[in-house]
Design brief:
Elements (H helix, E strand, L loop, with lengths): L7 H22 L20 H12 L3 E8 L2 E9 L3 H4 L5 H14 L14 E6 L3 E7 L6 H40 L12 H12 L10 H25 L1
Antiparallel strand pairs: 1-2, 2-4, 3-4
Length: 245
């Protein structure tokens, strides 16, 4: 029986190509269109994927700028600036120590240490967040890049998720303040705890008004309408009393 073997260069070509395919798959799962504008994924040698890595970053974030590249002890080190405008929306959501800790944790997500598993085709990365961008330093470009991109995309998702959740919490708090204002103006006593669900608040208002609502689907707009109706009744009653006097 005949036996065939792959040489070292062929194995590295396959590893590099699979690495490219993994990166393209990651950005596709992140919502980036790679169908109408496909990315060539074949590589001739290990380390050839840096172009695909940067292309994937640009597809997700925008134009990536090379700050500098040097050779240190036989290893290439490159620094890149990656735009990330969402950071400008993130920073105002935190203050003091909480902000420092959150940024520190995000920065740690961009750190990828050299893994001995990849023998001497390793790539390491360090990151740094800025106002509307982040910087990454890539050490030893001859290696596997998909773990780096995976870390960067995970950091991106964490930022976007945090902004969405914090904004939702802010909106809900503003809604509670508005409802509390209407309730006070209508002489309605309701417990407005920060973790109180809308259903409980709505039920409390309904009990205070001794009214029934023919739906279990309780929404913010219905609650506002009910309170506004009660406030108008109160104002009308005050007006009538003044006229009678």
């Amino acid at each position: 029986m005949e036996t065939s073997y792959y040489c070292f260069d062929q194995v590295n070509q396959m590893r590099a190509t699979l690495d490219n395919m993994a990166m393209i798959k990651m950005i596709a799962e992140a919502g980036i269109d790679v169908i109408t504008a496909p990315i060539e994924f074949s590589s001739n040698y290990i380390g050839d994927q840096d172009g695909i890595f940067l292309m994937c970053l640009e597809r997700v974030f925008g134009t990536v700028e090379n700050e500098w590249s040097i050779i240190d002890g036989g290893y290439e080190i490159s620094k890149y600036r990656v735009p990330f405008i969402e950071l400008k929306s993130l920073y105002p959501l935190f203050t003091g120590e909480k902000r420092i800790e959150y940024i520190r944790n995000l920065t740690l997500l961009l750190d990828v240490k050299v893994d001995d598993y990849y023998f001497y085709s390793d790539v390491a990365m360090e990151g740094e967040l800025s106002k509307d961008c982040f910087f990454i330093r890539i050490m030893n470009g001859a290696g596997v890049f998909s773990p780096l991109l995976e870390k960067i995309l995970f950091m991106r998702n964490e930022v976007i998720k945090t902004i969405r959740l914090q904004k939702m919490q802010l909106i809900n708090n503003l809604k509670r303040i508005f409802i509390a204002k209407l309730a006070i103006e209508s002489d309605i006593e309701v417990d407005f705890k920060s973790d109180q669900p809308w259903e409980a608040i709505y039920s409390g208002v309904r009990v205070q008004l001794q009214r029934s609502v023919g739906t279990d689907s309780l929404v913010y707009e219905e609650l506002i309408m009910l309170l506004q109706q009660e406030r108008r009744k109160k104002l009308q009653g005050s007006t009538n009393s003044e006229e009678a006097a």
